[in-house]
Amino acid sequence: MPGLWARPPSSDQRPKVGLWTKPPSSDRMSEEPRSLEDAKMTQILLEQQRLKQASESSSALRPDSHSPSSSAAAAASSRNKETAQNPVAEAVLPTEMSCRQAFDLAWACNSLGGQFNSVYRYGSMRACSQHWDDFWFCMRTKSYTGEQKATMIRDYHRAKELSKYGPGKPSSEDVWTSRLTLLPLGSAFSQPVNEPAVGDDQSRIMEAQRRREVRRELGYETSS
């Protein structure tokens, strides 16, 4: 029976370990960087395949060019181009916004006085979301400067005018003819006004006589 302590192996049975181990072969050293390159290339190919599949799926989900939504977007873009090509409409578009004024308008709209005024005039409370949209848009563009900020504000107000006065909306052009060109500088209100030949009292008497003549001709009054 073996005892608690086993007999140590003899010197012949012990494994012989040299002081210097054999260096790995050159083939093994060249295989390691090649395996790293293969792994990187495989990862790149997998990433390209994933991006290709994502682009194909997004193109499959993209609406057709003949769908109603795409046609509406195309019509809106064409209306924006037409509005942008109108020099008169472009000249009156603002390029600056006051965030304090936008906040005051939104706050006044939500206040008791603003809602009471709306109920008194129109019989119902009014929505103030448009005023808050103006305020938050002003806060978003506050950090921009120069032409970029002016373009953003101009595009924002152009979209607002299009939604309010676009095709099918009530417009002042139903009564007045829109001017397509700007007037030359100094040509507006340049006609001279003649001095009145009579005083105010005499003018009021003459106007009252003219009105009586008109009412008599229409049959509302009889000649005395």
Structure characterization notes:
Residues 28-40, 201-224 have a biased composition (Basic and acidic residues). This is Early meiotic induction protein 1. Residues 1-86, 193-224 are annotated as: Disordered. Residues 57-78 have a biased composition (Low complexity). The chain is an all-alpha fold and 224 residues long. It has a domain at 98-166. 59% of the residues lie in helices and 0% in strands. The protein has eight helices and no strands. It has helices at residues 26-61, 68-85, 87-91, 99-110, 112-122, 129-140, 146-165, 200-218. The longest helix is centred in the N-terminal third of the chain and has 36 residues, at 26-61. Residues 29-33 and 60-69 have low confidence and may be disordered.
